[in-house]
Design a protein that fits this description.
Blueprint lengths: L1 H23 L8 H7 L1 H14 L3 H12 L9 E4 L3 E5 L11 H11 L9 H19 L6 H17 L6 H22 L13
Antiparallel strand pairs: 1-2
Length: about 200
């Protein structure tokens, strides 16, 4: 009886591990937001909730998240190499779907009171993205659907955007342009998507 129970415990643990591994993989087609949300219904619900709460279009939030992590749950910046061989420190504390740094995540937890949030949980991560972009909108008067400018603030911070440090950063300007292009494509895909609830939760 004990052996049988132990055997089923092992099987159950393996099943949970396999399911967790599948859930942590990026969507099979990251280029089409309609297909992403059909494949990951939980992501769709979380994106709708974040859009309703922060009034940032899901297409913008998802484009930012893709640029940051390619939808990899436990993404981190690569380690530098000591003497070109030995793995060394990472360039920042960024982690998870949204690549939120320790400091930015602490601000989010304090501001929202969501103390149980995890950076490798999609629902928490997209809520963080919405919170951050909404803050950029409120403090800098950037339009909620201006994915280009919003990404500049997301990557360089509100202060960096105000100081214009991005103007001499060709990599960042190109990254923001790619986020803007993906956001526009995602929005078009959602507009013509069948089988998904596409109510807009905010106006203006």
């Amino acid at each position: 009886m004990c052996r049988e129970s132990a055997r089923w415990t092992v099987v159950a643990a393996l099943a949970v591990a396999v399911l967790a591994g599948c859930a942590s993989r990026p969507p099979s087609n990251s280029e089409n937001l309609c297909e992403i949300f059909k494949e990951r219904s939980r992501w769709h619900r979380a994106a709708q909730t974040a859009e309703k709460r922060w009034r940032i279009p899901a297409s913008v939030m998802m484009a930012v998240m893709y640029k940051e992590s390619s939808y990899v749950a436990n993404a981190r910046p690569p380690r530098s190499r000591l003497l070109r061989v030995i793995p060394w420190k990472r360039s920042s504390s960024a982690y998870g779907f949204a690549q939120a740094t320790d400091a930015a995540w602490a601000d989010y937890l304090r501001d929202t009171g969501n103390r149980s949030a995890d950076r490798d949980d999609f629902a928490d991560a997209i809520d963080f993205v919405g919170w951050y972009l909404n803050r950029s909108h409120r403090h800098l008067n950037i339009a909620r659907d201006d994915a280009h400018s919003l990404y500049l603030t997301y990557y360089g911070g509100l202060g960096g955007y105000q100081r214009g440090t991005w103007r001499n950063n060709d990599w960042l300007k190109d990254a923001a342009a790619r986020v803007d292009k993906r956001s526009s494509r995602y929005e078009r895909q959602l507009a013509s998507c069948r089988g998904l609830d596409r109510r807009r939760w905010w106006f203006g």
